[in-house]
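Dear colleagues,

As part of the handover before I leave the project, I'm documenting each prediction I ran so the next person doesn't have to rerun anything. This entry is a single chain, and its sequence is reproduced below.
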Amino acid sequence: MIGRFQCKASMTASTLTDIIDECEELLVNTLGFLRDKINSFFIDQDLMENDEANNILKAFDLSNVFNGLRKFEDQITAFKKIIKLLEDTREFRRQWIEQSGPTISEVFTNYPRLLDFNGEMIEREFDSLYPDSGDNFLEKFPTFYAPRILRYVQECKPAVYAESTIIEDENLRALLVLCTLMAVSNSVITKRGKGKGKGKKRTHEERDESPVPVRSSMFPNKDLLKTVADGTNLKNYATELKKR
C-alpha cells in the first residue's frame, strides 16, 4: 500500500501524518497477530531453541518497519518544503530568466531543486505560469497542430517534406519535421564566426547579433530519432551510444 501511495502537494501535513499512523496501526495488528501465531506454533513443536525459528521471528520485528515509515514521512516533509521554497522564489526567478536569458543549465545550476522528484517540480512551475495550457498541446496535436505543420513544411521546406514521406504515422511525421523548423536552444547554438572559432559552442552572452536563428536542417534530427540497419542489436547499439 505504501509503495503505491503518491504524495500530492494539496495534502496537509496532518493528513499525511494520519495516513502514516493508520499504516502503523495496521502493521502492528497484522504483524503482531502473525508473530503470536508463529510463536505458538514453535512452542508447540518445541522449536524455540532452533536458530532458524528465531530468524523467522526476527523478520517480524516492528522496529524495522517503523523506521521505513519514518523515512517516508521525512521524504514527504522535504517534498512540501521544496514546493514552498520554489513558490516563494518563483516571481524573482521568472524576472531573472526574462531579463538575463540564461541557458537551461544555468537555470538548473541556480535552482537545482527544480530537478527533484523526477521533474515534478518543473511540471508544477509550468502549471503555475500557464494554468490553462498544460494539456493543450497534446490534446490538439493530432487534429490541429499536425496538419498545419505538415502543410507549412510542404510549402516552405519541400525537400524535408519529401524526405518525411517514409514515415506513415502523420503525428510522428509532424513531430519530427517540427524539429527542422525550430531554432536550436541557446545552450547549444554554434558560433557562426570565421576561422578557428567556427563551430564552437558558446554561451548566450557570446552569441552574435544575426537575426537569423540557427536551425537543424538534418532530417530526421539525430538527437530525436536514430535510424539503424535491419537486424541491428538495439540493446548493444544503445549501450554504445551511452559510451560516446
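Residues 146 and 190 are 29 Å apart (CA to CA). The two ends are 41 Å apart (CA to CA).

All the best with the project,
I.
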